[in-house]
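Example: histidine kinase.
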Amino acid sequence: MTSLPIEAVQRRVLLFALLSLLLTGLLVSVAGFLPLASALQDNARQSLHHLHTLHSASIRHYKDSLHDLSRQVSSRSAIRQALLDHQQGRSSLAELRAFTTPRLQDALSSSSSLLALVRLTAQGDIVSVLGDTPTISADLAPAHILPIGQAMTQTTLLMPLYGNGPMNFLSISRILAPTGDVIGYDLLVFDSRPLAALLHQDDASTLGLSMYLAIPAHDGGQRWFQVDQHLLQPLDSLPFPAPSSSVWVESSLDQQTLASGPVAPRLDDQGWQMVIAADNHILYGDLTQSLTRVALAMVAILLVGGVLLVLLLRPLHGHLVIHTRDLEDKVQSLEALKHELEQERGRLHASNQDLEQFAYAASHDLQQPLRMIAGFIDLLRRRYRALLPTDGQEFLDFAVDGATRMQHMIADLLEYSRVGRLEQAMRPTALRDSVQAACDNLSLRIAESRADITVQDLPTVVVENSQMVRVFQNLIDNAIKYGPVDKPAKITISGHHEQDHWVISVADNGIGIEPAMQKNAFRLFQRLHTNSTAEGTGMGLAMCAKIITHHGGTIRLDSTPDVGTTISFTLPDNTTMPPEPTPSLNACKGPQSS
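Written out as structure tokens, the predicted fold is:
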């Protein structure tokens, strides 16, 4: 008989177990996080593209308003007839001026953005000069304007006008006789600050956005301007290569991401283009922080598992007496185990290849190792808890709790990443039906909490019904979860119309949110209350915000501690159907107790 110390064998087994645990967790984490991060980055770029589309629509609306006002001034029949009489020699220039000036003064007063108005005859004689004198420069002289007017192929022409002062817009409108002949020109100078204020939203500086606008000039070229608060500042050149104006493009520089494309042109006014530049560290900042927190939590769980493994194996450290035959049997067993491990390693390699090919499915499978770790740790707790010291028992409890919370965080993050990817067909949907479906899903919770839910008139809009059910379910569940302590929750769901959109509100009488926490309400993994108040992952409001943004709306929060919270979101008015009256109040009911 021979006796062999097995300290070296124990150390090697322990080291191998730790490395296997860490390596498996890292491989699965990398295979799941990389495609998930790529998908969320694509969503951030799509949001930038969506912002470009919204601003383009605002510019088109602004241009149309200027064109319409120019045509209204030029088409006034009485003063146009006076200009025609002068053109045909039936009145003098002095008579024409006396008749025209007071009537054009009314047109100048009709719009606050109209700074100056100049009327010329077809021969270049000045009929009237009205408005802000500094804006009327030598550039508006007949010698400069007549060549442009004679070369015009459209009724009106809009171009930039800038010199030493701020940039303005110059509209040149041809005045036509009934026969179609040109009998004069109207020059209207418009203030550009309303357009700059429209493009420079309150969140432009917070999001790190810079906006640039290219406007066609009368010489056939383009002039670039930067939106600087409430002014359009002329630029000698862009801080990056000028993009093509033919199609919408998106490009990433070292520090910025660009969304560039033409403002959908009118048939008689082409060449406008807009570029939105976003700082990358702000555009992807929240995404990077959220994924970093998830990765750190995964590493922490793996480290805790390694520490527990060391604590469990340490009491077994010692000397054993092993017979030669027993040693040979164990060596054979180890060889068989090695073969099995190689097979498992091969299967794991094949699984990782599948995960790389199916990136979206990979992030879902990330939950399986967590369930396995949580299951074995829970098994260790139930079997060996009595053998461990107090701190070991606490470590086990921490590990189980951490694994459970990690599973919830990844599940919510997966649901968050699916928004906008697994799209259903949008169709006209009565929001009252979406609310009722959400209440059906929460019927047991509503009944247990005795929550009083009142649904007022809600509209019919074009949305994805399943996503809207998710929004209402999250908001109703939050209102119940953070309801008042000494009485049932009272929830009111209502809607009203404002301009071109619907505003839907969900109000409650709960414990409210502290002002310092309200600015973080719609961020990923932002808990607004402690775990002692209610459990959660901080994804509910972030999910609602992403769904509403996906539908082209906005969401905001108003809350007063110990009084209540109101979540309001907007949806585009994309259907002509009126809101359907709710058949009765308190339409949401949980199952009635017998």
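Confidence is low (pLDDT under 50) at residues 317-324, 352-363, 590-594.
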